[in-house]
Write a structure and sequence with these properties.
The longest helix has about 120 residues, at about 350-465. This protein has helices at about 1-50, 50-65, 65-70, 75-85, 90-105, 110-125, 130-145, 150-165, 170-185, 190-205, 210-225, 230-245, 250-265, 270-285, 290-305, 310-325, 330-345, 350-465. The chain is elongated and about 145 Å long. Residues about 15-30 have low confidence and may be disordered. Among the domains are: about 170-290, Tetratricopeptide repeat domain (Serine Threonine Protein Phosphatase 5, Tetratricopeptide repeat, Alpha Horseshoe); about 295-385, Serine Threonine Protein Phosphatase 5, Tetratricopeptide repeat. Helix 5 (about 90-105) packs parallel to helix 7 and helix 7 (about 130-145) runs antiparallel to helix 8. By secondary structure, the protein is mainly α. About 90% of the residues lie in helices and about 0% in strands. The N and C termini lie far apart (about 175 Å).
Length: about 475
């Protein structure tokens, strides 16, 4: 028996070891390739020196390879920024700072992101680069929006929108209108949200931008759902899902299914809702979207309670609570605890029902206090941001004044040189004229002296002849 097990498992273990070895070798090779790419780009940065064309092309190359570079992208971009600062090439420095800010924002480092975007904004103001100003305003709005500083985010989005409209950047306009609408929605200002989202929908249709349209339809559906207009919400969620399927947005399809589930639940169509949540959950798990996983399980638990499927309800709500606690999602915990309270009440366990109900209110109070704290922080950030922007504007005005003074100085210098040249030319011409007159005078004088002498000689000759 022992020999049989050895003979059976030995090839299997060997096969597993070989597979692992190949995977390790593949990982090492991939890591080496990434480092080689980084080293080659780093070498090009050093070779570029102050060549503007090379520096621009390098920035494009680094940005295009950001996914291939992975964790090495940020250090390489920082090296590029240092080099651009050293050679004082401001246009590429401005763009690099903005792109590094974008990466920091993606990684959740919002303070760093804002700092980089503000540095880029300062250069864009100095260089009077309107297109870059629009990017900076929009990116600052996104960074503040991610932190729920919605009022501050709206200020920057509106600034971006004004610049984009002045530039005639139609695509930029409806992208920003999307952002403005989503931010008003977060503030529960549904009328303003719908106004901007409908504008973005019309522009997306005009430009046949199906990807943007899939997002705007979804936003419009969420606005109608928040206003208890479930039928309208379902109409737009279905439009959104069709476009997301067409444009192959896996994450987006799951979100569309999920939102349809919420809309059907709001209408009381529980079987339809359960089907949509059932479609969404596996994709949420596959993509690692824990917030939607918890929310999806919470709604499935609520549906199970309505259908008196208590074992399934308890299982779904327990899983939902575990995930929500792991990501500290207070909004989801309010929904989950409220559902658990209903579950325990139906089970006749009023003590646990009251405890879950109290927990839901405690989480709700935490959300309210968190919003109040963020509002205070937003006022401080707004003050500091306005102070920084004022400094940038003053610096810009000072630079304009310096440039004007320099231009006036150069103009005066040219004028003085011109006047001096004219005076010198006139003086020299007068000197030349004086010399000519003097020569003419001397010539006439010599002639006048010669004439009497000639007459005297002639008379003497005549007299001697006579």
């Amino acid at each position: 028996m022992k020999h049989f097990l050895v003979r059976f498992f030995k090839p299997l273990i060997l096969c597993i070891l070989i597979t692992l070895l190949f995977k390790i070798n593949g990982a090492i090779a991939q890591h080496l390739n990434i480092e080689q790419l980084r080293d080659s780009l780093r070498l090009e940065i050093k070779k570029a020196d102050d060549n503007e064309a090379q520096l621009r092309n390098l920035l494009i190359a680094i940005s295009k390879n950001r996914r291939n570079l992975k964790h090495l992208f940020k250090p390489l971009m920082e090296e590029y920024i240092e080099h651009a600062q050293r050679v004082n090439f401001k246009p590429s420095l401005m763009e690099a700072l903005d792109r590094l800010g974008h990466r920091e924002r993606q990684e959740g480092n919002y303070e760093k992101a804002i700092d980089y975007h503000l540095q880029s904004l300062e250069l864009a103001t100095e260089l009077a680069d309107s297109a870059q100003l629009a990017y900076n305003y929009s990116n600052l709005g996104q960074a503040y929006r991610r932190q729920d500083y919605n009022a501050l985010a709206l200020q920057y989005f509106h600034k971006a929108l004004n610049v984009q409209q002045a530039l005639g950047d139609k695509q930029g306009v409806y992208f920003t209108q999307n952002s403005i609408g989503a931010t008003y929605f977060a503030q529960e200002d549904y009328e303003e949200a719908r106004y901007y989202i409908e504008q973005a929908v019309n522009a997306s249709i005009e430009h046949n931008d199906k990807r943007s349209l899939s997002f705007t339809y979804g936003c419009l559906g969420e606005i109608y759902l928040a206003q208890n207009m479930a039928d309208s919400a379902i109409y737009y969620f279905l439009l959104s899902r069709d476009l997301k399927i067409e444009t192959n947005q896996t994450d987006g399809i799951a979100v569309a299914n999920h939102l349809l589930g919420q809309a059907y639940f709001a209408k009381g169509e529980l079987e339809w809702a359960k089907e949509e949540f059932g479609k969404a959950l596996p994709i949420h798990i596959q993509t690692g979207n824990k917030r939607y996983q918890a929310l999806c399980l919470a709604y499935l638990g609520k549906i199970d309670i309505e259908l008196d499927q208590f074992d399934s309800a308890r299982d779904n709500l327990s899983k939902a609570k575990e995930i929500a606690l792991s990501i500290h999602s207070l909004e989801n915990l309010v929904i989950i605890e409220t559902a658990l309270s209903d579950y325990f009440k139906k089970q006749g366990n009023y003590s646990n029902a009251f405890e879950a109900f109290a927990s839901s209110y405690a989480y709700r109070d935490s959300i309210i206090s968190g919003k109040a704290k963020r509002n205070v922080q937003a006022l401080e950030i707004e003050y500091q941001t306005k102070k920084k922007e004022t400094e940038i504007e003053l610096l810009f005005k000072e630079n304009i004044i310096k440039e004007q003074r320099m231009r006036i100085g150069i103009t005066l210098l040219v004028l003085l040189v011109t006047i001096f040249g004219l005076i010198t030319t006139i003086y020299l011409q007068r000197q030349r004229n004086a010399k000519v007159l003097e020569a003419e005078f001397q010539h006439k004088l010599s002639q006048s002296q010669m004439n009497p002498h000639f007459v005297s000689n002639a008379m003497s000759s005549i007299q001697s002849f006579m």
